[in-house]
Amino acid sequence: MGAALEVAGLSVVYGAAIEALDQVSLAVPEGGFVALLGANGAGKSTMLKAISGLLRFENGRVRAGRIVFNGEPIAGLPSFALARRGILHVREGRFVFPTMTVEENLEAASFARGKRTPQAPRRVYDEIFGYFPALARRRSSQAGYLSGGEQQMLAIGRALFAMPELLLVDEASLGLAPKIAAEIFSILARINAERRLSILVVEQNVSLALRHAAYGYVLESGKLVQEGPAASLMDRENLSKRYLGGQAAAHASP
Ligand code: ATP
Q: 124 C-alpha vs ligand 1 centroid, how far in Å?
């Protein structure tokens, strides 16, 4: 299996001096499901922003290293160009248009793939609503009135609407009830399996992420400190104590 995404020796700085990532390497195989773990401020979101071209909006830049997608170097490309290549980033914070309906929110995402989704074919709606029945029931509701979990589903649904080849998901579980967070991860795992969509998730909920991902990486203060198959990283005692602090230990219980 080839790599959809390869990041090699990536160093990222914000402004003149703040080093957020220091020579980090990781890979997402084609059709793989990979988790990037770490405590607050470890550099997880920075990694996703570097991959999807969002760093520039925060005065960040790649200082060294390579980012290769489908065999081509992509570091420095603007985010719209990366979206057209199929890299879709579901940012932390569930960005949806609150006054637009669920369907309108989905349709608004089609621009991200340019000509690839010319007129929002019915089939794409059906597929997304198939994955997220809760959204199907709310298809005509304004997004601002959805629950947190439904908004997260919509944010992921919008990315799917743009027909991604690599889906980046930042803290999908944040602020959600454990049952809803688990449901969202199950759906991501199903999409990964059925569509062979490559997925890279950033999570503080270690056990949730490792239950669904096949492989994980752990960042600490901008450096990669551990990696391995999810089953081997499941030694949560070790992981949470060493790198993730009390917060992760709390998450680690089922
Ligand atoms: P969190 O879960 O809190 O989002 P994270 O692991 O995603 O944590 P990042 O947000 O990537 O961590 O932050 C990594 C480091 O870079 C931190 O020290 C943070 O303060 C710094 N940082 C992040 N964004 C910026 C920015 N826009 N300008 C300056 N420094 C930043």
A: 35
